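Listing S7. Sequence submitted for prediction.
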Amino acid sequence: MAVADLILHDARIFTVDPSRPRAEAIRIVGGRITEVGPEREVLAGRSPRTRLRSLGGAFVMPGIVDGHNHPAEAGPTALFELGLDPGAGVDAILDRVRARAEQAAPGAWIMGPAGGRR
């Protein structure tokens, strides 16, 4: 068993494994999770150079990949709206509007997202 680089412990871990649905610690070697289990078992894989990080009883679960869209926002209207970054400054916004205006037909409206989306 390779020595752990990092052990995350003092956690409430949901494993998604029906045979062991809960755990308390995670052992990481070389940037990869190598063990998830009871704290005493996972801590047995430590050495003096292992970093220990208490999660203070935090809940941990595997990442969720959520691919979805909102049809009303992803439909034809989005094709005509000017995409603006929420943190864009005034100069950046004016540059985007200018660039779109150069491509637009005379008299065409340039619309930005309602409510600051995109």
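Caption to Listing S7: primary sequence and predicted structure tokens for the chain studied. DSSP finds four helices and five strands in the chain. Residues 68 and 74 are 10 Å apart (CA to CA).
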